[in-house]
Amino acid sequence: MANGPGDDGRRQEILQATWQLIAERGYHAVRVADIAAVCGTSTGTIHYYFPGKQDVLTEALRYCVQQAFDRQQAALQRVSGAKQRLLTLIDLQLPKPGHVRSEWLIWIQFWAEAALRPELQPIHKDFYTRWHQAVLRLITRGQQDGELRDVDPVGATHRFTALTDGLAIQLLSGAPGMDLPTMRRLLVDFIENDLAAPPKRRRATG
Question: Would 1-57 and 79-195 be classified into the same CATH topology?
Fold first, then answer.
């Protein structure tokens, strides 16, 4: 079936509505009828673009993650220096109320679904590889520029991403003592104490 001129915009509208519903209600609580209601259309229109419920839910997860990557990449391009970019990435990743918190709720549900549904694992692997590679490039560049310590960059990447994900899960699940300032402080401490190169001492003159 050929796509009409407004098909791409309509499809994007459906995906936008779907991922927001998943964030609000949970992956398995969202019905095609709910998506249609938010979009002001019929279930038949939803099925025109996506044959089944799983198709639209899966594509909505993919769409949400892609939007987050694109936004973060654009923000990081405006920042100079690998260390400052890592610190900026921390602020971009904090699950503050609103858009970013909703994206984290999507991520957590995506992890759960990928663990249970093998067909989602290639999608999850692709996005998680991109997340790792983005951090790895920053760390490697920082080492080349002398901003960051000469540590194993792959190991440092695993530690940073695991710390970010673990702290976000604790925060969103209401773990005692975890809040946004605490999460940020722990991540910044990792950058400053484990990655940042010590300041060079000036030679004494006289």
Answer: no
